[in-house]
Amino acid sequence: MERTGRAAPVRTVKRTGEATVHASDGSIRGHLAANLRRARSGLGLSISELSRLSGIGKATLSQLESGAGNPTIETVFSLSRTLRMPISDLLDASTAEPTVVRGADVEVLRGAGVDLRPLSRLETGESIVELYDQRVRAGRRQDSDGHVGIEHTSVQVGTLLVHLDGRITRLEAGDYIRFDATVPHSYEAPDGEVRSVLLLQYRPDRAGATITPH
C-alpha cells in the first residue's frame, strides 16, 4: 500500500532584547494556532469549555490560538487527548509535498524531561503514524497522563526506563517497546541522554472523535 510522508516546515523563534519575535505561520506555533482554532470551532467548544476539559488555562489557550503562546509537550498532548485527534493534526501544515527534514532545523517541543522533534506523518488506509526524534535529557523524567494512539519507541543511544501501569521496563540501545498510549506512562533517562525514535500510531476512526461538552 502506498505511503505518503509529510512534515511541517519549521522556523526558529528568536528573541530580541525583551521582545519575542514570533515565528510566522510556517512554524509549529502558526500551525497549532490555526489547527486549534479550527478543531475547537468544529466541535462547537468555547475557549472556556476547552479550558475546563483540558485543564489548560483560558489565557494560555487564547495565546496559543493567536500564535503567541509557547506550546510545551504537556500542553500539546493534553490538547490531543481532549480533542481526540493526532498530534500531527495539531502541528502539521497539511502539505502533501515531499520534504527533507534536517534535524538541526526542526523546531523542538520541550517537556519536563523530553525534547521532541516532529519529523513526518505517514498515512495508509488503516492507520496514521507520526514520526518523532525523541531525546530524554540525562537524569530527567517525562510523565504523561496518556493520550490517543499506540506508542512505539526504539532506543538508539543510552538506557531508557519506561514506567507503565506500575511496572518499569529497562531498554538499551536497539531495544523496542509498544504500548497503549492512553495508559499513563513515563520515560526516564537514569544515566546519560537517551536518543530514540518515537512513532505514534492512530486508527483513522479514533482520530477526531466527537466530544460533547458537559
UniProtKB/TrEMBL annotation:
Pfam family of the protein (one): Cupin_2
GO MF annotation terms: DNA binding; DNA-binding transcription factor activity
Keyword DNA-binding attributed: yes
GO CC list: cytosol
Name of the protein in its database record: XRE family transcriptional regulator
Domain HTH cro/C1-type: start-end pairs: 35-90
Keywords: DNA-binding
Gene3D superfamilies given in the database record: Jelly Rolls, lambda repressor-like DNA-binding domains
InterPro entries: Cro/C1-type_HTH, Cupin_2, Lambda_DNA-bd_dom_sf, RmlC-like_jellyroll, RmlC_Cupin_sf, TransReg_Diox_bact_type
Keyword Protease carried by entry: no
